[in-house]
Amino acid sequence: MLFKKEWTESVRSYKILWIPVVFILLGITQPVTSYYFADIIGQFGGLPEGAVMDIPIPTGAEVITATLGQFGQIGFLVLVLAYMGIVAKEKNHGTQILVLVKPVSYTNYLTAKWAHLLCISLGSYAMGYIAAVYYTFLLIEKMVIADLIYGGIIYGIWIAFVMTVILCLSALLNSTAFVAFAGLGLTVVLSLLSSLTPDLMTLSPAMLTSHSQNLYQTGQVGSGFGLNLAFTLVLIIGILIGTIYLFHKKEIAQHTT
Amino acid sequence: MNEAVNALQELNWGLIAPILLLQFILMIVALFDCLKNENLNGPKWLWILVILFINTLGPIVYFIFGRGNR
What is the mean pLDDT of chain A? Predict the structure, then answer.
């Protein structure tokens, strides 16, 4: 029931339309620009006469990795900005009190939002990813499909983690701007730390991105992958439960004072 | 100059068409919503200009920031 309400909300604000479109655009643009990269430089770069240009067309693995990088930057930005108010806005307008006076538990309220968030983000991501893979096959080279599917799922779990964090922040903070800032900041810090000091951060969810890259390039995940995956899944569930608990406590405190 | 024209003709338009189509869909939907929405953040004519003339990013920015609450 609540899950359905979230959908009507997304349909009414066109989120269900434009977020997938943005992801598909990102997914198509990356392979196409890398395919035409040499041409583009040739047309607009203004290289001196006689300069020998030999820019190799990148491998499929590089293109898919770059596309995931785009999803990780612009894609996250779009998702976070679109959903930073998922709980915080309703809290500020007081609409969630209308929902919560009915016999609806906090658990239902938050998990409905969580499920909806995951559906939209992972659905859009999957569409964009399929578009990127299709174009890479068409323009650059064929790759091992099993690797692509596993890599995509691994990256999807990282997205699920980020979305869970966004829900948590949105439930606990009042300012939507601060939700966006903290959420994006956290993903950037996690990704940076994981790429700078991979040895210390073997458990970090952001390491999943480098595991998926390994999979594309060598066909194998890096060491410590199983533990990393398990830890991330536990973290997602843990954050969700923690959010429900804290949200509950906070709301009760608010109503009694 | 001739080179540029040739390059344009060599481009495989079948590859570019989906990108243009998606951008177009985004623009049209944003435009329709903007025209009938009475509760915008900021003046309507400004948003219409943004949607029409800023490629891809314009409609996205409109969807995120332009639509008022409710």
Answer: 83
B69 touches A: beta carbon within 8 Å = yes
Instruction: Check: CB of residue A232 under 8 Å from CB of residue A158.
Output: yes
Chain B 5-44, CB below 8 Å of chain A: which residues?
7, 11, 15-16, 18-19, 22-23, 25-26, 29-30, 33
Evaluate if residue A183 carries a pLDDT over 50. Answer: yes
Question: pLDDT tens digits, residue range A127-143?
Answer: 999 999 998 988 888 88
* ipTM given for this complex: 0.79
| Cβ-defined contact of A135 to B25 (cutoff 8 Å) | no
For A148, the 3-state DSSP assignment is: helix
**pLDDT tens string A153-182:** 999 999 999 999 999 998 888 888 888 889
Total domains, chain A:
1
Work out the burial of residue A47: count CB atoms within 10 Å of its CB; fewer than 13 is exposed, 13-18 middle, 19 or more buried. Answer: exposed
| Residue ranges of domains in chain B | 2-66
- B64·A22 Cβ contact <8 A: no
CA distance B24 to chain A (A): 11
The predicted-structure confidence for B12-33, as pLDDT tens digits, reads as follows 777 788 888 999 998 998 898 8
**Residue A232 belongs to what domain range?**
2-256
**Terminal C-alpha separation, chain A:** 31
How far apart, in Å, are the Cα atoms of A149 and each of A121, A130, A139, A143, A216?
Answer: 17, 10, 19, 11, 10
Report whether A157 contacts A232 (CB < 8 A).
yes
Q: How far is B65 from chain A (nearest CA, A)?
A: 9
